[in-house]
Design a protein that fits this description.
With 385 residues, the chain is α/β, with parallel strands linked by helices. It has two domains: 246 residues, Type I PLP-dependent aspartate aminotransferase-like (Major domain) (Aspartate Aminotransferase, domain 2, 3-Layer(aba) Sandwich), CATH 3.40.640.10; 118 residues, Aspartate Aminotransferase, domain 1 (Alpha-Beta Complex), CATH 3.90.1150.10. The chain is built from ten helices and 18 strands. Strands 1, 2, 3, 4, 5, 6, 7, 9, 10 and 17 form a ten-stranded mixed β-sheet that branches. Strands 13-15-18-16 form a four-stranded antiparallel β-sheet. α3 crosses α6. The longest helix has 32 residues. It is globular and about 65 Å long. It starts with 15 loop residues before the first helix and ends with a helix. The structure holds pyridoxal-5'-phosphate. Pyridoxal-5'-phosphate binds next to α3.
Length: 385
């Protein structure tokens, strides 16, 4: 009887238990504790950033990013339509702003041509910023998501953000370890290129702390402010005074222990993901109408999620059911965000490719402990569809 092959599960094969036990023995379980500071130092060193702020989740890191970016109530923010909803809620509605949804290109990341087209032809650039011709609102920020660990086109987005006076927020929730290896940004990690970037350590991410995240910024005072706001904006730990509305968004010491152990494994996890991706690609890409979504050239992607593009003859949900019957877990790409909650009333732009990916992508098993044999079983099942 063959065993269940999950889509993406955590892999605790290092020092996780040891470090967590040390924290429990010392009774440091909450948000104060030396391990949170150590995890911040570890993240900053890995990402080559002056500092990192460890948070309760990727969503809270994104909310803090929006706050320190100064996005105002009534502003508009350009966001991708093809992403997880946590790219959008914290950077728009949480701060009273409204999203403008723009589609993706063939990389599944936000399409820079469409963003430029929207800014140039649907907005007016004034001395104090960009204004949407249709709504009159100030378009103050641009959220770029590195979808499935694939680097968005950052040289283009840097150029667009500068030209149109937009704050550039990177949602690198899925892209810890993805970096440029060539070109003007060689050596730069996803999340460290724009004004502010956020990572997630949720259970299905390349490393996990159960739930957790990190924020980095190229403005040191933004990172410092994010940390302050993440700890209830407390100004005096004895008197309990606070200088603004803050949040309980700091990572816990226990989560930081998990994170430190997982960071020791990160580069090995990435290599494992690359190896299994290559195995899938060699067997499936261009065979029987299937293709594997590639990762951007000139980068070392973390290869977090693998996207299988189905041929037109196959229906996505039937494929998912057929594979499930063989104990292989897969999933479709997210339902487009402009169809969620009440986002239907927000403006959309150039969604054709996003709709196509929504219809044709199936994410296939990619855990960091997926074996060569399990991968071969998935390949056989796909080729039999
Ligand atoms: C693209 C993207 N953005 C944001 C998040 C939110 O992160 P978290 O679940 O840690 O809040 C996630 C993951 O869950 C994600 O995949």
């Amino acid at each position: 009887m063959s065993s269940f092959i999950p889509l993406s599960v955590p892999n605790f094969c290092g020092n996780e238990k040891k470090y967590v036990n040390d924290a429990l023995d010392g009774a440091w379980v909450s948000t104060s504790g030396a391990k949170v500071d150590e995890m911040e130092a570890c993240m900053a060193a890995y990402l080559n950033m002056p500092r990192a702020v460890c948070c309760a989740s990727g969503s809270s890191a994104l909310h803090l990013s929006a706050i320190v970016s100064g996005i105002q109530r009534g502003d508009e923010v350009i966001v991708p339509d093809l992403t997880f909803i946590a790219s959008v809620n914290p950077t728009t509605r949480y701060v009273g702003a409204e999203p403008v949804f723009i589609g993706c290109d063939e990389t599944a990341c936000l399409d820079p041509d469409a963003v430029e087209d929207f800014c140039a032809n649907c907005c007016t650039l004034k001395e104090d910023g960009l204004y949407n011709n249709k709504t009159g609102a100030h378009v103050s920020a641009l959220v770029v998501v590195h979808v499935f660990g694939n680097m968005a086109d950052m040289p283009r987005f840097l150029e667009i953000a500068k030209k149109y006076k937009l704050i550039l927020i990177e949602d690198a929730a899925e892209a810890l370890g993805t970096k440029y290896t060539a070109g003007p940004l060689a050596g730069k990690f996803a999340g460290t290129i724009g004004d502010v970037g956020a990572y997630s350590f949720n259970g299905n991410k390349i490393i996990t702390t159960g739930t957790g995240g990190t924020l980095v910024s190229n403005h040191d005072d933004w990172a410092a402010r994010a940390k302050h706001i993440s700890t209830q904006a407390k100004t005096d730990v004895v008197q309990f005074t606070h200088d603004q509305v803050g949040y309980n968004y700091r990572m816990t010491n226990i989560d930081a222990c998990l994170g430190l152990a997982q960071m020791e494994l990160l580069e090995g996890f990435i290599q494992h993901k690359i190896d299994r991706y290559q195995q899938y690609k060699a067997a499936l890409d261009g065979v029987k109408g299937f293709s594997m979504l590639p990762f951007r050239e000139g980068t070392r992607s973390n290869h977090w999620f693998y996207s299988l593009l189905l041929p037109d003859r196959l229906d996505r949900d039937t494929v998912i059911k057929t594979l499930h019957a063989q104990k292989i877990q897969t999933r479709p790409v997210w339902a487009l965000i402009h169809e969620q909650c009440d986002y239907g009333r927000n403006q959309t732009f150039a969604l054709e490719q996003a709709k196509e990916f929504r219809r044709r992508i199936v994410n296939i098993p990619c855990s960091t402990n997926l074996t060569e044999e399990e991968c071969a079983r998935v390949i056989d099942a796909v080729l039999a569809l």
